[in-house]
Amino acid sequence: MEQIIAAVRGLEGALVVVPGPGDGSPEVAWGDVFFSYAPDGPMPRPAQPYATVVTKNYPDDSASDLDPPDRRRVNIHVDRATFRELTGEEPRRLSLPRDHAAVDRVMPHPVHGPLGWISVVNPGERTTDTVIRLLRDAHDAARARCERRRGRSGPPGCD
Questions:
Q1: Pairing state of beta strands 14-17 and 33-37?
Q2: Rounded Cα–Cα distance for residues 102 and 105 (Å)
Q3: Assessment of whether the complete model's pTM goes beyond 0.70
Q4: What is the overall mean pLDDT for the chain?
Q5: CB 137 within 8 A of CB 147
Q6: 69: left (phi over 0), alpha (psi -120 to 50) or beta
Q7: Peptide bond before 68: cis, by omega within 30 degrees of 0?
Q8: Alpha-carbon distance 22 to 18, whole Å?
């Protein structure tokens, strides 16, 4: 996972946030990782991160079984064509059964798949290169959205 986080940190304008005690973030988010495009430094508002690393089950999201030690899930927003290529389905028409707890497999996010999010539990030999490529693509898409917004409203920020 450190290789994946380091790859994003190396992207121009990347903001990698790891919430923890004392930073004002909700305790439920502590230890998770949020990736955003933020060329000016602060977390863009109201924009959502383009990817996350989740380190635990959430009340409405437990299908990946993330509570045992050393289980993490990378979540990445992708475009529709990429989603179809990776999953064989349209985001809003998911119907194939999946084992969302399976490791080192690209699949729709168990909750946010219909919104174009994919996920990988414990990326390994089969998926790490794909995950890094998808993170770069998501970062580039976030940068393009920022540049379009700036073009409409002028600098600074991407919100």
A1: antiparallel
A2: 7
A3: yes
A4: 93
A5: no
A6: beta
A7: no
A8: 12
